[in-house]
Amino acid sequence: MEHRRLGDSGLHVSAITYGNWLTHGRASAETARACVAAALDAGITSFDTADVYGAPDYGAAEEVLGGALAGVRRESVELFTKVCLPTGAGPNDRGLSRKHIQESCHASLRRLGVDHVDLYQAHRYDEGTPLEETMTAFADLVRQGKVLYLGVSEWSSDQIRRAAALARELRVPLVANQPQYSILWRVIEAEVMPTCVGLGIGQIAFSPVAQGALSGKYLPGQTRPDGSRAADERGGRFVGRYLSDPVLAAVQRLRPMSEQAGLSLAQLAIAWVLKDAAVATAIIGASRPEQIAQNAAAAGRRLDPDLMAAIDAAMVDEVHGDLVERDPAKIASPFDTMASWKAREDTAVA
Fold it and tell me: Where is the NADP-dependent oxidoreductase domain (predicted)?
């Protein structure tokens, strides 16, 4: 397994991170433990979770991950978790206030069974809390030894710049950004990635296989396979954006390229995300242990320039033009911002 530095920090992370958004807390504990064991066997040392994962049983994913890693030498793994999205019904059970950050961090440490996390990330930007309050609360956790490094997820370039300025003033290490990034979703390339490179912030890319759309299992003109993420109501909200026939046809155009490179479509997608040194690691999920070994094999694979050009060409057709999402205004999923959470709650109340 290849390891890379996270931004300009001294922290090394595995090029593949195992994330448990849609699995732990929903799969059986036995399956979850088997997946974590498979990740360790594949050389993965970095593990990503969040306080909201496992909803509506908030924190369930952290508990399962902590249990699965019990007995593993703490210094040999890097634990990432997050705070911001709602973990309860109260007005202080969300956001990036000092109160919620402190309480959520302590709860995450308890569920994970550790005394510190390697990386603590602001899961989304909170327009309702002064950024100074947020960054000071994070800095206090760093000084208390409960958090080693700081990160953000799905923030705009301007928000990242302002946070980085405060981090420098507070003398704490803001070293990571966790955006979605894939062959189909290249939003960060316009503004976020250049900003982060200039600030020494590394990318922890999630959804490199576009929620499974780049695995090739969804075919144009066909129904969604039973048991797939697209067939699941929760997962289907996220992968649905990629399931138009033109996009699925473009994915199928990648198949002969992946075969020629000796890679599965999913491996090709992950290798593509890892092509840039600005990306420190790509997050993969799994519902079965064998998926982890297969996808982890993408680490260290280099794609030659001709193949990269062919991939770009496959994402364009005569009728629909460019099928890749590049709009820098679309930082986060429409289902996954603080504003969208509040809008959904207001609608439910109405």
Answer: 16-314
pTM of the model: 0.91
Burial of 156 (0-12, 13-18, 19+ CB in 10 A): middle
Tell me what pLDDT residue 55 has.
82
Low-confidence ranges of the chain (pLDDT < 50): 231, 235, 345-350
> What stretch of H or E contains 46?
strand 46-48
Helical residues (DSSP H) of the chain, grouped into ranges: 29-41, 60-69, 98-112, 131-143, 157-170, 192-199, 233-239, 245-253, 255-261, 265-273, 289-296, 305-314, 338-349
Count CB atoms within 10 A of the CB of residue 229. Answer: 22
Residue 125 known to be catalytic: no
Q: For the packed helices 98-112 and 60-69, what is the interaxial angle rounded to 10 degrees?
A: 40
Contacts of 330 (CB under 8 A, 6+ apart): 187
pLDDT at site 221: 81
Catalytic-labelled residue, pool 53, 120, 125, 242: 53
Please give the Cα distance from 162 to 131 (Å, whole number).
8
CA pair distance 271, 258, nearest whole angstrom: 11
- 332, 179 contact by CB (below 8 A): no
233: tokens are 């109501």
pLDDT confidence of residue 234: 52
Check whether domain 3-349 has CATH 3.20.20.100, yes or no:
yes
Secondary structure element (H or E) that encloses residue 121, with its range: strand 117-122
Rg (CA), the chain: 19
Burial class of residue 136 (count of CB atoms within 10 Å of its CB; 0-12, 13-18, 19+): middle
pLDDT at site 349:
35
Determine the pLDDT at residue 237: 60
pLDDT at 151: 98
Domain boundaries, the chain: 3-349
Tell me, what's the pLDDT at 225?
A: 62
Q: In whole angstroms, give the CA distance from residue 37 to residue 309.
A: 37
